[in-house]
Structures are given as structure tokens and as C-alpha cells.
Amino acid sequence: MTLERMSLARQVDVALEKLSGELKGLSAGTIVLQIRDDAVGRFGIRHLPVDCGTQEQGTSGMSPSQVLNLRRLAIEALKHKSGWTHGEISYDFGLKQGQVYVSVLFESNYNMANVLFRYSPKNRDRREASNE
Questions:
Q1: Distance between CA 122 and CA 37 in Å, rounded?
Q2: Which residues pair with 46 in a beta bridge?
Q3: How many CB atoms lie within 10 A of CB 15?
Q4: Secondary element (H or E) of residue 102
Q5: Measuring CA to CA, how many Å separate 68 from each of 20, 38, 50, 63, 64?
Q6: Strand ranges (DSSP E) for 10-98?
Q7: What is the pTM of this model?
Q8: Quick one: which of 80, 88, 93 has its CA closest to 20?
Q9: What pLDDT digit, counting tens, does each position of 18-45 carry?
Q10: Tell me: the pLDDT tens digits for 70-127?
Q11: Contact of 12 with 39, CB cutoff 8 Å
């Protein structure tokens, strides 16, 4: 299946699936997805190294089931995105008392050159244009 045919929700799910190994080691952070033409471009995680715990230190990251819950919440949040195709989606997540908490930030981006200077040809013949 090509990227053009995949829904944005499915693309987000695939991106988060690719990040699941890294997410399992984290207790908090921000997942960032850059969107172009309703398609996920770049994606990754921002986090502070101190939030990356290990079992030996007494703190651990998310379990596989918590990562799945995060993916479900991220896809569910897409229902609030409407009317834009370019921008960024940020998912802030944290693990508190065994629960995954997620907040989402949608950022739409527009290119002013496309808005103001879009070429739209006029349907005129030469004779009509010379009479102006």
C-alpha cells in the first residue's frame, strides 16, 4: 500500500509502531509528526534523558500495553483535526501511577506565496486581451 492511499490515522499508527521500542524506555516526552498533504513526513520523539529510566534504577518506561494505549489515544485524537493538510501534530505524554496521559497540539501551516500568488489563467482569446 502506498503512502497516498493510506489514511492519516493509519500513517500515525505506523509511525508510532516504529517508535514503540523507544517509547518502552520512556516515562514522558513529546511525539512530533510533521504533516504535508495529509501525509506523515518526519516523525520522532523529544524527551529529556533523565526521563529515560531503567528497571535497575527503580523507574521504568511504558509497558507494551501502555504503548498500545498511547497509540490508540493518538489515533483517537485525530478526530479533532479538520480543515488543514500541512502542519505538525505533537503528542505530549506522561506515565503517572501506571496510567498514560496524553495531550495533543495541532499546528496548521500555510504558505503565503501559494495563497497570494497562485497563477490562475484567464480564459480569453488574443482579440479580447488586445482591447484592454
A1: 27
A2: 30
A3: 19
A4: strand 99-108
A5: 9, 23, 23, 9, 6
A6: 28-36, 39-46, 87-96
A7: 0.76
A8: 93
A9: 999 999 989 999 999 999 999 999 999 9
A10: 999 999 999 999 989 999 999 999 999 989 999 999 999 987 776 676 566 666 665 5
A11: no
Report the candidate in 76, 77, 51, 73 with the shortest Cα–Cα distance to residue 62.
51
Contact in structure between 19 and 40 (CB atoms under 8 Å): no
Separation CA 115–CA 132 (nearest Å):
27
CA 30 to chain CA centroid, Å, is: 11
Contacts of 57 (CB under 8 A, 6+ apart): none
d(CA 60, CA 1): 36
Cell representation of residue 111: 504558505
Query: CB within 8 A of 126, min separation 6: which ones?
Result: none
DSSP state, residue 55: G
- Among candidates 66, 74, 61, which has minimal Cα distance to 22? 61
Q: Reduced to 3 states, what is the DSSP secondary structure of residue 85?
A: coil
d(CA 93, CA 10): 20
Cell of 102: 496524553
